[in-house]
Structure formats: C-alpha cells, structure tokens
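lol forgot to send this yesterday, sorry. struct tokens for the thing we talked abt
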C-alpha cells in the first residue's frame, strides 16, 4: 500500500548542490553536478544538470504540482521538450519515495 506524497513535502529536502554518479541512456554511470531549486511555494522544483550532461548545454528537469499529480518537463536545449505526468508515492514499509507514471 502506498500513499501520495506532495511535491512540497520533499522538494525542500532535495534543494541545493549535488555531485555524484548518475545513469545515462547507454547504461554506464557518469559523474554529474546538479543544482536543485524549489519555488517559494514548493510547487515547482528545478533540477539543472550542468556538468556531465549528455549535451554541451545543461539539462533541465522541471517538476511542478498539477493538482494532486506532478508534471515533469525535461529539456536538453537541443531536442523537443518531453512532458509526463507522475504520481509520487511513499511505500508504507519505508521512507523511500517512488515516482510512477500515470496511466
């Protein structure tokens, strides 16, 4: 059983500068530097991958609250932006947040 978690509940916990390994499409992890920023109302979270991104410019992951769901807009500055709605849930047996696409 899982319970929905609102973006504002975890956005402030992720805010800041991050550095570490991340997955990429070819399956090999690589080192990246990211910045995470939350809007003042915690209804928007911006993640910018500025070093180690797949392309020469930054990748941007914009999560925004849309009612009880979360919309993700991904932009790499080269290809067409990608958008998808998600539900963020917390498993009842742990504190790990999971993001699942809406069907």
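and heres what i got for the seq, position by position
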């Amino acid at each position: 059983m899982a319970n929905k978690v609102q973006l504002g509940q975890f956005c402030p916990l992720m805010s800041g500068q991050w550095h570490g390994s991340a997955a990429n499409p070819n399956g090999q992890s690589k080192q990246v530097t990211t910045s995470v920023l939350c809007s003042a109302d915690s209804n928007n979270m911006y993640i910018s991958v500025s070093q180690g991104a797949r392309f020469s410019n930054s990748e941007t992951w914009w999560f925004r609250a849309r009612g009880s769901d979360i919309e993700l807009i991904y932009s790499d500055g080269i290809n067409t932006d990608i958008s998808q709605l998600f539900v963020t849930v917390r498993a009842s047996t742990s504190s790990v947040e999971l993001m699942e696409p809406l069907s």
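Helices lie at 7-14. anyway ping me if u want another try
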